[in-house]
Amino acid sequence: MELDHQYNIFFVLFALVWWIVSGFSNFVVRIDSFLPIDKRFSNLINVFMMHALILASCIVIFNLEELSRLLLLYTYLSTALLIGFSRLILFQVNRYFTNSDMAHTRYVIVGTGPAAASLHQTLSNNDEIGTKFMGFFDDEADMSNPYSSQLQGGLDDLKDYCLQHSIDEIYYTKPLTDSAQINELTEFANDNFIYLRLVPDFSAMVKKDVNVYFYHNIPMLSVRNEPLELASNRVVKRIFDVVFSLSVILLIFPILFPIIALLIKLESKGPIFFKQLRPGKKNRLFVCYKFRTMRVNNNTELQATKNDPRITRFGAIMRKTSLDELPQFFNVLLGDMSVVGPRPNLVSQLDQYSKVISKYKTRHFVTPGITGYAQVSGFRGETKEVHLMEKRVEYDVMYMAKWSLMMDMKIIFLTVWNMIKGEKNAY
What we know:
Number of helices: 14
Radius of gyration: 28 Å
Strand order of the largest sheet: 3-2-1-4-5
Low-confidence stretches: 26-35
Mean pLDDT: 80
Order of helices and strands: HHHEHEEHEHEEEHHEEHHEHEHHH
Shape: globular
Structural class: alpha/beta
Helix content: 40-55%
Number of strands: 11
Distance between the termini: 53 Å
Oligomer: single chain
Number of domains: 3
Strand content: 5-15%
């Protein structure tokens, strides 16, 4: 009877954890093709790994160790098969309705310039059920344009075409300088229950991707796409940091600390903890905590090198397995660090590299982390040459642009995996 109760708890937890994880990852339920098939498959694998990690923690917390391991395997296999089968069916239904005359949303694009081409490519890759592209309209179309075969006429032909073919949406991609034309189209669209979408082309002003957001009703552009600019994302990341760091401090730290402290003391004289000022968010200095891995010396601003004589034997093991970073979870609780983010470099490195690497200071827009995208991508350890630091910075900036909670989960998983197998560049 007790085992039946455990199974009931297990299935409730399985469903609840899946609901939470998939809620953070809308690509689990999306069937559009904004993402390529390999990326969607990779994301789905990440969700399963995150689900398994959280569920394993729940099994330990709720003392469900008597559950059959075979049951766990069958449950995950059946879930994967059901998701795969349902997505296949939905994809086929999606494609059928998209390519058929039953499409309930028909749209045209005004203009054939770069903005029109980008919009067409994006919307064409979005297999949203019931949408169908009906053609371009432009008075100044270049017939050498690859989309010229899909040109339905000029602006004078647009209104009649929309009425004859029951167009639902008009995307206007021409410069927003012709207010009379825009007002005329707006009035026509309102009178005939057609949605008019304005898609401004900023390519002449901004030569890179921009992030558009609204402050009340005022549109604003940011030349750097950074999800953590949004307060809601920062709150989610901070809640995760506090929960995760508290879990480590309460469950793992009390077990490992006495062993590590004893081994540090037995091998060399000095404090257990090593404290050092590091530049954090917006270059604000904070005290970074680590387990001491070196003999006490006066060269703490000198980066560790291979076979560094300052490093103790046990210190080398801690560096290889990243155990020396364990006290930094207290930095996370204090708000000076995050679990995942650009690694905080030495103050001397800040002075050195900010002068020769253009985006070096950009990485300090966000809170530094215990682990980071650069570290799990193979860029960890000594940086003898500038190009090695440039690669770290490149991955740090990439992390800032692509941040998501699932990305943090993936980096944590890869960090744990690297700890188990050992890092060849960690010394």
